[in-house]
Amino acid sequence: MSVTEDRMTPDCAAMLSAYAADLTCSSLADTSRTAYFHRVRGFLTWVAGSGDGVPADTSAAVRTAHRYRRHLHDRGYSPATINSVLVAIDDLYTRRGLGATGIRQPSTPVPAPGPR
Predict the structure, then answer these.
(1) Where does 1-116 have alpha helices with state H?
(2) How far is CA 45 from the centre of its chain?
(3) For residue range 34-60, what is the model confidence (pLDDT) as tens digits?
(4) Is the dihedral of CA 68, 84, 8, 72 positive or negative?
(5) 21-35 residue pLDDT tens
């Protein structure tokens, strides 16, 4: 897992590097570690481009995740893809001590309850 990213600010690159180290010590399967790393790298590249910098506390982290979710939605990503990205961001935030985003969505729409 390479941490080099030309479009990433130093603080985002440092967070990605620390996360990569966290992942090597995790109990996640190799395929999950790779997927999480790539999803988080995309997120942190977006964060760097947003000009806000790495979230420093839970409140800022949640706001940033909400904005990224909207960004993905506006670009037409499926709910399942958005959810998989949010799971990776939750993992990043948890491992970096920022808490979870709390904004995961179901992969498929939940049907409305039928008549009783």
Answers:
(1) 10-24, 30-50, 58-74, 79-95
(2) 11
(3) 999 999 999 999 999 888 788 888 888
(4) negative
(5) 999 999 999 999 999
